[in-house]
Design goal:
The protein has two domains: about 1-215, Growth Hormone, Chain: A; about 225-465, Up-down Bundle (Growth Hormone, Chain: A), CATH 1.20.1250. It contains 17 helices and no strands. The protein has helices at about 5-30, 35-65, 65-85, 90-105, 105-120, 125-145, 150-175, 180-210, 220-255, 260-285, 290-315, 315-325, 330-370, 375-400, 400-425, 430-450, 455-460. It starts with a helix and ends in an 8-residue tail after the last helix.
């Protein structure tokens, strides 16, 4: 089994993961109601289980040599469990009713019961899905002579698959095949991938046997400080992705309306630029000091996010420009206008966010001389849960979307400055000048934004649509 086939399997896995999430969410809406509580609870439970799977399978992959066996198990188990759960999905309401009674009938009891019920329902497939990234990363590291930017390639392929998954789920597969048939189709692909891997596991296992080739270096006090900072960066990368994504989708929901189509457009554009960022950015970053590149990426994510505020205020003009180019008479032309105008607004920070996690993982591997792919990816997912809750429960209802974007952008700038000061190889004078420049830019932009008072369309805190 060659690397190209494994790369293709990675795309299918990414597509399956997001397609299952989108379709299951629609099924949960049918039984529990189409509310923000149901959406946020489902995504939080789904992602926490995936984080647990990433951590556990990452530890197993680091200690075991049968990586083809592990990958076959994750794919076979994922496909089989998805088929079983989807087939018996109608019993979900009875399961939730049991937990409602256990935790009380108030709002808190309903929330806890919903979370526990969803957690149990998605436990097996989400855990196996989360374990795919560390397992396939370890497997490809064994097969690849050139390990540079490997994590960026794998992460990008997962993002490509995720973009295809949500695009197909929202615009094509569900419309033509229905909810259940779409799930069975992709679950069948997972089973097929697992079966093929199972058949070739003995032959291919001999090729990559020979133990772990990663050196186990001793952690010095300095490397521990750097590794902690890089782990925080890995966690924050997930936080920024989901927090920014929630805020941007909320802003666009004012324009497109709160529909699954508007959500699908925003997330698809977001993921496409993630993928490009992972491919291109990680390849470029290997030519420079990784920690310095990581710091610069954080700083430019913050600056790019600040620019999106101005672009959002100018969105009607951007949309009209694309409307004149493509027209708005046909379904395809209308969607081209939507996709193109959304890309103009978010492509810079989305591209850089795609570089962030692979760069943090490569920096961690370079600084500590060990591999903790599963743990780092688990933190990345947990950060996503925190970002989702932060955006939905605090930023949107309390401070609003524009100021929320500013808040996250400043965190980016602070974290980037911290990495630049503590982990980069630049001289002290350069660090001081860079830090002062970031502070000045933040101050000037804050004054400009507050002077303009934003646009009335997104100035007031509001519930920006379904996540």
């Amino acid at each position: 089994m060659g690397r190209k086939r494994l790369y293709f399997y990675t795309i299918i896995t990414g597509a399956s993961g997001l397609l299952f999430a989108v379709i299951w969410l629609r099924m949960f809406w049918q039984y529990a109601g189409k509310t923000s509580l149901v959406s946020a609870t489902f995504l939080a439970a789904y992602m926490l289980v995936a984080a647990t799977g990433s951590f556990l399978f990452g530890r197993i992959a680091e200690k075991r040599e049968k990586h083809f066996f592990l990958f076959a198990v994750t794919q076979l188990g994922l496909g089989a469990s998805v088929i079983i759960i989807t087939y018996y999905f109608s019993s979900f309401h009875s399961l939730i009713s049991v937990f409602y009674g256990l935790f009380g009938s108030g709002e808190r009891g309903v929330s806890v019961g919903l979370f526990v019920g969803i957690f149990i329902l998605v436990l097996v497939p989400a855990m196996l899905l989360g374990g795919t990234f560390p397992v396939i990363s370890t497997l490809l590291a064994k097969l690849s002579a050139d390990k540079s930017s490997l994590h960026g390639r794998i992460y990008s392929l997962l993002c490509v698959g995720a973009a295809l998954g949500i695009f197909c789920a929202v615009f094509f597969i569900v419309r033509f095949f229905g909810l259940y048939s779409a799930v069975y189709l992709f679950a069948g692909l997972n089973v097929l991938i697992g079966y093929i891997t199972w058949l070739v596991r003995k032959k291919e296992g001999k090729i990559i046997s020979g133990g772990n080739d990663l050196s186990e270096g001793e952690d010095t006090e300095a490397s521990k400080t750097v590794s902690r900072l890089l782990y925080i960066t890995a966690c924050c990368s997930g936080l920024f992705i989901f927090a920014y994504g929630t805020l941007w989708s909320g802003a666009f929901s004012y324009i497109f309306g709160t529909t699954l189509n508007s959500l699908g457009i925003t997330i698809t554009v977001f993921l496409v630029w993630f993928a490009l960022g992972g491919f291109i950015g990680s390849a470029i970053s290997e030519r420079f000091n990784r920690n310095t590149v990581l710091a610069v990426i954080q700083i430019f994510i913050g600056l790019g996010a600040l620019v999106t505020i101005s672009l959002l205020t100018s969105y009607p003009a951007i949309h009209d420009t694309f409307g004149k180019i493509f027209g708005t008479e046909w379904w395809l032309s209308r969607h081209l206008v939507w996709f193109g105008s959304v890309e103009i607004v978010i492509f810079i920070p989305a591209f850089l966010l795609g570089v962030l996690f692979p760069s943090a993982l490569d920096s961690l591997k370079e600084s500590v001389k060990k591999t903790y792919t599963g743990s780092a990816f688990a933190l990345h997912i947990i950060g996503g849960v925190i970002g989702l809750c932060l955006a939905r429960c605090f930023i949107i209802p309390v401070i609003g979307i524009p100021k929320g974007i500013m808040f996250l952008a400043f965190i980016n700038l602070i974290l980037g400055g911290s990495v630049f000061c503590y982990a980069s190889s630049q001289k002290r004078l350069v660090k001081i000048i860079a830090g002062a420049a970031v502070i000045i830019i933040c101050g000037v932009y804050t004054v400009i934004i507050n002077k303009d008072q934003f646009v009335h369309l997104i100035a007031e805190p509001a519930d920006g649509g379904e996540v």
